User: Which sequence fits this backbone?
């Protein structure tokens, strides 16, 4: 996983958490749901990148 990808995925996760928090504070269910959706998407990207890294490491060590 490239450093740029890590930074982008983490920032998407942080933005999602912020949206969720603001949605909760303002009782805006739409914004809250959007924040959760952003977090799920960012976490899925991170998991995919980690899997690619693990596969690359496994093939490099042979």
Assistant:
């Amino acid at each position: 996983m490239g450093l740029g990808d890590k930074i982008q995925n983490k920032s998407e996760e942080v933005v999602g958490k912020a949206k969720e928090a603001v949605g909760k504070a303002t009782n805006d269910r739409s914004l809250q749901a959007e924040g959760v959706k952003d977090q799920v998407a960012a976490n899925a990207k991170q998991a995919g990148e980690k899997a690619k890294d693990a596969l690359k490491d496994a093939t490099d060590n042979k």
